[in-house]
Amino acid sequence: MVYMSSEVGVVDIQPDVKIIQKGRLKAGRLLIVDTESGQLLDDESLKSKIATKHPYDVWLKEGQLFAQVTNPPIDPFRERIVMTLMCPIGPQKNILIPSRAQTHRLWLANPILSLKDMALLRSLGGNPPSQPEDVKITSTVLSWRSVILDATLSVHEGSEKVSLGSKLFHFLQDLCDKAENAVLHDSVDLLIISDRASSRDRLPVPILLAVGAVHQRLVRRELRMRVGIIAETGESK
């Protein structure tokens, strides 16, 4: 018999009952009851079984790019097991079918990219710049292709009678069309949505609106898992 509850003393157990094991299920730990085999699988044995099922260590060494930055966890003492700021981007394969291809992603220590990192990602598909000191590059990642989608709206384009809201709507439709075509026809791996071109004549579209519109379009077209999305913006605080 297995008892699990959020408080001690929920179940009255007779003194003559032999307790084989008792304890507290800590954050991020697993406890599995296999009703078919009658086994009780603890956290260590279960994770060890999963971790040794495939050569994950070999896949990780060969297939990933890590940005070497030193930002610490928010709470490195109590929450390291259950939370991380690491952010994987890029095409993602079916997580239900483990394979080497799943490791071909870019892992960032946090979601914020430096100017050197952005310069590298913008250049993918062409001649990459010299390697920045804070980024370790693997040859597989350099096979990726990125495309820059302008997220600025011309203030002079179109009829003066058309409202700004209508201009914004049609701009987002066009932005989504470009993103969809880039993934579907050009086999792009990274979409960089950028408001770098903003000026007196070009208004920056709210970056969350632009990224959200592209994300939802790709989800509806079942293309989202094939590409990563990066926001290059002066709007973030």
From TrEMBL:
InterPro entries: Aldolase_TIM, GATase_2_dom, Glu_synth_centr_N, Ntn_hydrolases_N. GO terms for molecular function: glutamate synthase activity. Residues 64-235 form the Glutamate synthase central-N domain. Residues 1-59 form the Glutamine amidotransferase type-2 domain. Pfam families: GATase_2 (PF00310), Glu_syn_central (PF04898). This is Dynein_C domain-containing protein. It comes from Schistosoma curassoni.
